[in-house]
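Minimal example, chain plus pyridoxal-5'-phosphate.
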Amino acid sequence: MNTNTSERESSTAFQAFVDFTRSIYGNDFIPLHRPVFEGNEKQYLIDCIDSNFVSSVGAKVTEFEQQVAAFTGAKYAVATVNGTAALHVALQLVGVQRDDEVITQALTFIATCNALSYAGAHPVFVDVDRDTLGLGPAALRQFLGQHAEMRDGCAYNKTTGRRLAACVPMHTFGLPCRIEEIVSLCNDYSIAVVEDAAESLGSYVGTRHTGTFGKMATLSFNGNKVITTGGGGMIITDDADLAARAKYITTTAKVPHPYEFVHDEIGYNYRLPNLNAALGCAQMERLPEFLAVKADVAGRYAGFFESLGIPLMRAPEGTTANYWLGAIVLESLQERDAFLAFTNTQGVMTRPIWRLMTRLTMFQHCQHDGLANSLWLEDRVVNIPSSVPNGALPAFNPQAL
Ligand SMILES: *Cc1c(COP(=O)(O)O)cnc(C)c1O
């Protein structure tokens, strides 16, 4: 659509979108992303109940961790009760302390900022790239050049006097951000990178899985993610000591002993129950299939939106996206609002991208750069239904991808 699109033309395009989405997902209410339990989910849950191991001890947790480590290529994986808890612990383990600062993007889900706040840190917001929706290396370079100074091997923020302890880039909607450049830049400043890979299970930069570039990374298995355990998360890392520490403090920091309860530091009850891990094991078996179907759906959307002249977010050059949630970029706030109202009224769920973190009461006083791209995207990006559809799709050659 061009800038002069009349409302009548818009609603024709919006109706075409509703019709197209219904051709994939059918005539009932279409949610943004629903889970699919068509494999061994029920069986593994029954196995758990029959074994009596439903809670914090059980074989499924270890099995799930091994599956995720094997899939991502990370050496170690530690399951947690959710993705927010995983991020909280990862930040603590890379050395984030009270009143440190953590650089992240203002265009993210609240969990990123909640987790760093639990660790006692303050967020500092740097702009994203328009084509990845993830933290921009150019913006990061500029921010660090302007505000960081090195003292005793650590980066400090010249403006606030606080230590810049970590950086948390996020792979938005499964589109990989420019993580290699971000890591290399952060290395120059001795800033630890923790990747928030909650949305990017199955997304790669080259052949390397997202979440394996930083010192640690975290995943989420919330009900709306690529695979789900009901609620759940995972820390992945190649560092044996950090992995062992992660397991220890997410399981109450209990000194191993057959019957004595001795805990030698403040730990967390952040472990994933065996029941949830059972779901995860069954979902991991389906993951390659889910990813193939999601790529197929993304290809269909690509062809459709091209015909309308509406940009659909695609995997940046050299990367593979999991196409967790499709995202389109509308012309203006006005068009966005009209699209949201039209589609949601028709029972096709669409949703605007998050409000920038800098708009929220808790974070509005935090330091940030100009956020030009974040502000531009905030007004225009909308998520569209992206579940794995029920049953087989009509034949389609995903050449549009
Ligand atoms: C889902 C998500 C998380 C983690 O959420 P939980 O619900 O705690 O598992 C973290 N960051 C981002 C960007 C997310 O989308």
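The first helix runs from residue 7 to 25. Residues 82-84, 108-109, 111-112, 170, 196, 198-199, 220, 222, 233 surround pyridoxal-5'-phosphate (CB under 6 Å).
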